[in-house]
Design brief:
The protein is 53% helix and 5% strand. With 274 residues, the protein is mainly alpha-helical. Strand 2 and strand 3 form a beta hairpin. It is a peripheral membrane protein.
């Protein structure tokens, strides 16, 4: 994931050498920086995104500012990838930033945390089937190691169940995870809840954010029963492939968003001269 971030940074340096007037998104900090140079420190208000010298705004007309330069570069790259038609449904980082800035549901930090932890009650990998035996074995082999990891990592009890009521999650488990999530910023929590809602699993999200799982692994584990049925009955190529790629894209964007919102080291640039 961090290699991807570095690739974004390298690509941004190449974008800085492109002539003005194109689709390039430019990251600025609010200072009057000469067009042929770029050297700055992060301002108190965050990093702005300028598109062809015009300040980007949110749907509620707020100034589009982000907390880290790494995230600003990633968003700028996302905009630069747009062609003749701007496809907002492909711009997951921009959407997450807009949600963080506008907070359309008016939720506070505690409400975001509770919403994410509530997914434990219906966590995908905690619900098990009783038959067929091959699927029972598959769930055990693929999901149990992740649950075991989470229980050891956070010192909690999670478990699994074949009951439609789901597993009985101890109150202490919820308290520990609430305390853990409280260490994240509001921005990062927006990303975490977004990933949880994509994977339908708090446990898989923890594994992904903690780098225990890759995006591909987390997505596959969240779709384990569906993939089992595809292997058994066949694949509707255009539908299943599209759903898989979309889920990967959204999950990857959410995970990247969390890490870039937690980025505390400012990227230092050399002075760019003509």
């Amino acid at each position: 994931m961090w290699r991807r971030c570095l690739c974004l940074r390298d690509r941004w340096r190449r974008l800085l050498n492109q002539p003005s007037g194109g689709p390039t998104a430019i990251v600025r900090t609010g200072a009057n920086i000469p067009s042929l140079s770029r050297a700055y420190a992060p301002p108190a208000g965050g990093f702005e995104i300028n598109l062809d010298h015009r300040k980007l705004k949110t749907p509620q007309a707020k100034l589009f500012t982000v907390p880290s330069e790494a995230l600003a570069i990633a968003v700028a790259t996302e905009w630069d990838c747009q062609q003749d038609t701007i496809k907002f449904y492909t711009m997951h980082l921009t959407t997450l930033c807009n949600t963080s800035l506008d907070n359309p549901t008016q939720r506070n930090k505690d409400q975001l945390i509770r919403a994410a932890v509530k997914f434990l009650d219906t966590d995908t990998i905690c619900y098990r089937v009783e038959e067929p035996e091959t699927l029972v074995e598959l769930q055990k082999n693929e999901w149990d190691p992740i649950i075991t990891w989470a229980e050891k990592r956070y010192g909690v009890e999670i478990g699994s169940s074949t009951s439609i009521m789901g597993p009985n999650i101890p109150d202490r488990t919820r308290e520990v995870l609430v305390s853990h999530l409280a260490s994240y910023s509001m921005w990062a929590l927006q990303g975490i809840e977004f990933v949880v809602s994509q994977l339908k699993s708090m446990v898989l999200t923890l594994g992904l954010i903690d780098l225990r799982l890759t995006v591909e692994q987390a997505v596959l584990l969240s779709r384990l029963e569906e993939e089992y049925q595809i292997q058994k009955w066949g694949n509707v190529e255009w539908a299943h492939d599209y759903e898989l790629q979309e889920l990967r894209a959204r999950t990857a964007a959410g995970a990247l968003f969390v890490h870039l919102c937690s980025e505390s080291t400012t990227i230092r640039h050399k002075l760019l001269q003509d």
